[in-house]
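ok trying again, last paste got cut off:
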Amino acid sequence: MHLLRLLLISALIGLTLSSPARALTLLRDPDIEHAMKQLAAPLLKAAGLSPTRVDILIIDDRNLNAFVVDRDHIFIHSGLLLKMDNAAMLQAVIAHEAAHIANGHLTRRTLNMRTARSAAGLGAALAAAAAIAAGAGEAAGAAAIGASNSAMRMFMSHTRAEENAADQSGLRFMANAGIDTQGAVAVMDIFRGQEALSRYRQDPYARTHPLSADRFRVVRRLADAYADKARAQPVHDYWFARAKGKLSAFQRSPKWTLTRAGESGYADIKLMRQAVAHHRRSQTNKAIRAMDQAIAQRPNDPFLQELKGQILMESRNFSAAVNAYGRAVNMAPDNALILGSYGRALMAQGQIGKAQQYLEKARALDGRDARVMRDLAAAYAKQGDKGMASLVTSERYAMMGRLEDAGLHAQRASDLLPRGSTGWRRAQDVLSAAKAAEKKRR
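nice, full thing came through this time. structure:
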């Protein structure tokens, strides 16, 4: 599991920025993101959305919150995931956010954006990593935004009418997917009474998703009406337990994890959690033994191989890490996060040319990973290609909202790369964005 700090990125350009950009931290883990895909897929299909297009991303924040900012991303705080007791509860959150997308509630955000801009300098939609999902070319055209808490709430909050509509649609999506709608009641029960608290004591979810007693009663009545639609979902139960188990193993103390490692009832998850706890105690041999036992139970699971590679890599056993990551890549050749980790391990082992190939593929599949771009720039530099090293560095800075630094590296790349080449044109995109941002600062 890796933390990836990104700035909140604007999807639009040329807007006045009045406060420092705020950073968020995404938890990029291929195992957890795969689990989210498994849990979300039937709901997204029921909503008429594409499961391959909509990503569920986890924000490293203990607050209870979830939100959408465009049609392609649903963000869930790690605190909310850990608060959920079962798959149906987490799926209720996903269904609700998917309903906001499917029901067109994001259209109102454009109007809120304009109001918030004049009120507190919120220049554009919070697209976070979404603005760069299509690749570095679009990332180069992005500008970092800053926003006060009040402006962000103005932008992110939903009306009661939207919440009621999303409740009804989300419950329908759950029922159509055969998911127990009582999960939605359980989630809402967590937030009951929040509106009686002062705004500063409320969970962010309650502030942006207003909850009333009437709304709770309607949800409970609808959930009861759909009760006969629910059916057993063993695959969902497994992936929920795995995602929550892995996340908690990294975020809770090793002692806490070891005493609760087997609470899910799945032997491989128990072993995985034990491995993480041992690794965090620097007990590498114990961690690897636990991972090997888990892998023996699921020999075709690329994510267990990836975790073994991470443990070995962080223990500076680079050759063994390359082997583990290599096996993971063979099982999941199009997983950008695994490809990026493999490239990083190859770099550590000194296989620079091979590392570059895998890092380029990772960047092409997912342009949101600043670590991949950092490693790719290093690979180009080690091979003497200063022009491409500067270009990738400029695109990484642009993605992070550091457009002044991006412009400096883009100018260097422009001077070094053949005029008219693909790389040279990419450098011009970054330069244009940097110049536009500089013009707005004046």
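cool. The two ends are 41 Å apart (CA to CA). Residues 5-22, 113-152 have pLDDT under 50 and may be disordered.
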